[in-house]
Amino acid sequence: MTKPTKKPLNVLSFKMAQLNRQFELTNQATKRCKENYPDDYHHKIKMRDECLELVKRLKGGKEIYSRLATKNALSEDEAKAFKQFKQALSYLIFHYQGVADYVTECDKGVSNG
Fold this sequence. Notes:
Largest sheet: none
Distance between the termini: 6 Å
Order of helices and strands: HHHH
Helix content: over 70%
Low-confidence stretches: none
């Protein structure tokens, strides 16, 4: 089993139990792949690169939307929707970055999960 990761202070971390589990299962599969199928680990490296690309794009979009929101007066409903949008982005960024980091740890042989 993978080591427990520190969850972000994000309401979605508590609401998305099944998705959280999927990220954990991905990490478990990464470790098993490295241990049992090292010749196929290049697929996990590719997944890490894809996760990092998503993180980069999500962070870029979050920054742009934040700048747009500060330049424009948002209604109460829009501000609420924007806050929820930022929470979703932060949740995804955290978990995709975590998967990428775990692939790197396993590749270096430092995972202790």
